[in-house]
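Hello,

Our lab assistant flagged a job as stuck in the queue for most of the afternoon. It eventually completed. Since we weren't sure the result was trustworthy after the delay, we are filing this so someone can double-check. Below is the sequence as submitted and the structure that was eventually returned. Let us know if re-running is recommended.
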Amino acid sequence: IADMLQLHDFNRAAAARALGISRVTLYNKIRKYRIKMKDRRPLEEE
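-- returned structure --
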């Protein structure tokens, strides 16, 4: 799960699709296994 999240730049919806599970299931597994999510930086404004 952690590898798939990293592969998809921590995009949970894309990772869930690639794993063949729902986003809710992915969120539950992230909590269950205490997977740390990478902090996503906001886009810089021009």
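-- support follow-up --
The delay was a queue issue, not a problem with the job. The result is valid. The first helix runs from residue 2 to 7. The CA atoms of residues 37 and 43 lie 18 Å apart.
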